[in-house]
Design a protein that fits this description.
880 residues; eight-stranded mixed sheet; five-stranded mixed sheet; 28 helices; binds arginine; binds zinc ion; Aminopeptidase_N-like_N_sf; protease; Aminopeptidase_N-like_N; EC 3.4.11.2; hydrolase
């Protein structure tokens, strides 16, 4: 059953108020719901029946205006309760039983460890009670939670706490009231024996808000960073967007079993523990950054998502794209803006570009879906954020703020569309965005082919830009987009020139110029130049597009050294490395050119007192194997790995002294520090260590082992462990095995750290990795019922280890298909996500294509597949 945007109809009934009573138990929970319904004046009259969504519910009773209904007056379907011929306004009471302990899908009410928790987005509420489970039905919820006081001393729901009592039988009842009407997907309850880490925040208008992070008692020493991030995010939203928090309390709960990163339930954010728990000895700098970003993201949803929500799920990017943009900007303000931009673009290119070029390609606002859970994608989130970013850049900070103020004022308390958002930008910005809107509707990554010419007599430089977007499934014609295209022109010394358009009488100050592309072909002529400039294109990555321009190696090296735009300095280095690596793939006995090594050597020399070490570490990071594969017509799995190893080893050998200098200058101080500068030092040092360990001498191996054993912080421990595990035993003996064993013994009881242990082995390039991964499936600490563990072992192998996953005997594909078929009946969302690497089968050689297709076809033949898996597999095979 395909759902189409064009079929949207307003709901026939509205639910103004819902009073829910839960009798909580792990095995069995009873839910009593009292709903105040009325006919929606804005909707057409239907057949007179009321349709309530509901799945996996056991209905015990249904009453309308206090009259228990006889079976003839309603009908129970697999996914709905239909109540026949209802009045225009009435109260409906239902009583249902649900079984949280049997809920392995982790949607609705489920068990994690000893606690009960919920996940309702997108359509999980219908597994809790019968309801109109769609985001344009906004309801005032009040909740009573009754549970055994010993096992569930903490009882949480959305909104404000309005009383607790202990019943005579020893059970406890907690009451919560949420004054803000909300869609059911934002509903949450949590019950458990949890400990709180607490703090307070005073809002701009002076309201004191208690903040609590609830965790399992052994984790209270791992919440500092999350709490710090939360307070910083609350302040930032006040300052940057004028948005204050609006309830009497803000609660966060960390749970071990969670399908995604986290969830913005009103006043009760529920998190994957991975995005809350961190101590310097358990979490890497990347983990810390992830926590900061996700805590902020969920907090920011309070305005962009909760106060203003989505009319339907096609509008998902209304809240997700905007909120990702907000969390990206927040994180940029907390550390290095330039490095943050590089990381975000690297991720966009690694995940969203391939999605846009594959069988699941869809617009930021999709037109149709089979299973909405499949559309929480890099396109909706990350490309959606780029689309908001482009509007922010087109308007400039002041007008963009006017636009968001207007949006918050106009739509507070409503369920709206991306179109409503754009119209606010248009009105407040006094700008025409009619062509820009295509970014929401058109899938695929635009390609900009750039060519130039210089007239030495007139000093005129002409840049010609052709844009085209490759076709995507279901969209065979593509229209030109409005593209903000930031350009700089460099002189021979590397300085920015004034970018003066022909016809302009005065030259602007030297620097970046924002051009607006609208036509399929645009020509810009710049004047006042003494010599041919070197163009710096798409500065700051001003639009989510692919730029092609025939740079020479010398020009790329020049830009890498001189471009005033930090992003483009990094991008030039990347392009240079990609180009060289592809040459090494094509020509296996080609030596690494001296000029390349010299350029890297020059970059290393920049590591002095005032250098940005984090940026330098980014420059030194070679493009990943999968990104290199994306640049080839047919992915050469083995050639890419060989070439990348060859280049890394050449850098390690030929720049040994410079790399050792980096280690010396960037030693870890005794006092641990999470400042951007300290993180930059660690990143740079570990990048250097990685190269040195590609061609290791005994002293370097010893250093690496010492760093692992010192155990000073998880960033350094993992970096050293990875080097030891991946190194050739010829160089390191059994140091890799020993380190793995030591790591396991130290961290066996810390699930998040243990995930790293599983992941590292799954990503190893050693030839026996698949066997090892298969062995780890039998490890007592492995389970298919914890999504983090599944991602750590199976996901890491399939996505993070292209060399071994794509082994030409097809064993990796068979392995993954087997796991997906095991997982699908348990947890379809996780099963479906694991399919991703197989959706890309068309990118490989014929042998691999046939092998992957055979596995996809095998999956598709299985009876009773979930919608989630069915949709991805059938679309991948081109059958939907
Ligand atoms: N809204 C949540 C977040 O951004 C993600 C929820 C994902 N849920 C799902 N069923 N895929 O931040
Ligand atoms: Zn979100």
């Amino acid at each position: 059953p395909v759902i189409h945007l064009k079929d949207y109809r307003p709901p026939e009934f509205l639910i103004d108020r819902a009073a829910l009573h839960f009798d909580l138990g792990l095995e069995e929970t009873a839910v009593h719901a009292e709903l105040d319904l009325r006919r929606n004046p804005a909707a057409k009259r239907g057949d007179g029946d009321l349709y309530l969504d509901g799945e996996h519910l056991e209905l015990l009773e249904v009453a309308l205006d206090d009259r228990t209904l006889p079976p003839a007056e309603y009908e129970i379907r697999e996914d709905a309760l239909v109540v026949h011929r209802v009045p225009d306004r009435f109260r409906l009471r239902t009583r249902v039983l649900i079984r949280p302990a049997d809920n392995t899908a982790l949607e609705g009410l489920y068990v994690s460890g000893d606690m009960l928790c919920t996940q309702c987005e997108a359509e999980g509420f219908r597994r809790i009670t019968y309801f109109i489970d769609r985001p344009d039905v906004m309801t005032r919820f009040s909740v009573a939670l009754a549970a055994d006081a010993e096992r569930f001393p903490v009882l949480l729901a959305n909104g404000n706490p309005v009383g607790e009592e202990t019943l005579e039988d020893g059970r406890k009842v907690a009451r919560w009231d949420d004054p803000f009407p909300k869609p059911s997907y934002l509903f949450a309850v949590v019950a458990g024996d949890l400990a709180a880490v607490s703090d307070r925040f005073t809002t701009l208008s002076g309201r004191e808000v208690p903040l609590n992070i609830y965790v399992e008692p052994e984790n209270t020493d791992k919440c500092d960073h999350a709490m710090r991030s939360l307070k910083a995010a609350m302040r930032w939203d006040e300052e940057r967007y004028g948005r204050e928090y609006d309830l009497d309390v803000f609660n966060i709960v960390a749970v071990s079993h969670f399908n995604m990163g986290a969830m913005e339930n009103k006043g009760l954010n529920v998190f994957n523990a991975k995005y809350i728990l961190a101590r310097p000895d358990t979490a890497t700098d990347m983990d810390f950054a992830g926590i900061e970003g996700v805590v902020a993201h969920e907090y920011f949803h309070n305005w962009t998502g909760n106060r203003i929500t989505c009319r339907d799920w096609f509008q998902l990017s209304l809240k997700e794209g905007f909120t990702v943009y907000r969390d990206q900007e927040f994180s940029a303000d907390q550390s290095s803006r330039g490095v943050k931009r590089i990381e975000d673009v690297r991720m966009l290119r690694a995940r969203q570009f391939p999605e846009d070029a594959g069988p699941m390609a869809h617009p930021v606002r999709p037109d149709s879906y089979i299973e909405i859970n499949n559309f929480y994608t890099a396109t909706v989130y990350e490309k959606g954020a780029e689309v908001v970013r482009m509007q922010a850049n087109l308007l400039g900070p002041e007008r963009f703020r006017k636009g968001t103020d207007l949006y918050f004022e106009r739509f507070d308390g409503q369920a709206v569309t991306t179109e409503d958002f754009v119209r606010c930008m248009e009105e407040a910005g006094d700008i025409d965005l009619s062509q820009f809107r295509r970014w929401y509707a058109q899938a695929g990554t635009p390609v900009l082919e750039c060519a130039d010419s210089f007239d030495a007599h007139t000093g005129a430089y002409t840049l010609e830009i052709r844009q085209h977007t490759p076709t995507t499934p279901g969209q065979s014609t593509k229209l030109p987009l409005q593209i903000p295209f930031a350009v700089g022109l460099l002189d021979a010394a590397g300085a920015d020139l004034p970018v003066q358009l022909d016809g302009e009488t005065e030259a602007p100050a030297p620097g970046t110029r924002m051009l607006a592309l609208r036509e399929a072909v645009e020509r810009f002529t710049f004047v006042g130049l003494d010599a041919e400039p070197v163009p710096s294109l798409l500065r700051g990555f001003s639009a989510p597009v692919i730029v092609r321009y025939p740079y020479t190696d010398a020009q790329l090296t020049f830009l890498m050294a001189h471009d005033s735009d930090g992003f483009n300095r990094w991008d030039a280095a990347q392009s240079l490395s990609v180009r060289l690596l592809l040459e090494l793939v094509a020509e296996s006995d080609k030596p690494v050119p001296e000029a390349y090594i010299e350029a890297v050597g020059r970059a290393l020399k920049q590591d002095d007192a005032d250098a940005d070490q984090a940026l330098l570490a980014e420059v030194l990071t070679l493009p990943s194997e999968s990104y290199l594969g994306d640049q080839m017509t047919v992915v050469d799995v083995d050639g890419i790995h060989r070439a990348r190893e060859q280049l890394a080893a050449a850098i390690g050998e030929q720049l040994r002294d410079a790399l050792l200098g980096v280690l010396e200058r960037n030693q870890e101080p005794v006092e641990y520090d999470l400042s951007p500068a300290a993180m930059g030092r660690r990143a740079l040092r570990n990048a250097a260590l990685g190269y040195l360990m590609r061609a290791p001498t005994p002293d370097i191996v010893e250093r690496c082992r010492a760093q692992f054993e010192a155990g000073h912080n998880m960033t350094d421990v993992i970096a050293a462990l990875r080097c030891l595990v991946d190194a050739d035993p010829e160089h390191v003996g059994d140091a890799g095995e020993q380190a793995l064993t030591a790591f396991y013994q130290r961290w066996a009881e810390d699930p998040l750290v243990l995930d790293k242990w599983f992941g590292l082995q799954a990503q190893s390039s050693r030839p026996d990795t698949l066997e090892r991964v298969e062995g780890l499936l039998e490890h007592p600490k492995f389970t298919l019922t914890n999504p983090n563990r599944v991602r750590a072992l199976i996901g890491a192998f399939a996505v993070g280890n292209p060399l071994r996953f794509h082994a030409v005997d097809g064993a990796g594909y068979r392995f993954l298909a087997d796991r997906i078929l095991e997982l699908d009946p348990l947890n379809p969302q996780i099963a479906s996500r694991l399919l991703y690497p197989m959706t890309r089968w068309r990118r490989y050689d014929e042998i691999r294509q046939a092998l992957i297709r055979a596995q996809l076809e095998r999956i598709l033949e299985v009876e009773g597949l979930s919608n989630d898996v069915y949709e991805v597999v059938s679309k991948s095979l081109g059958q939907e």
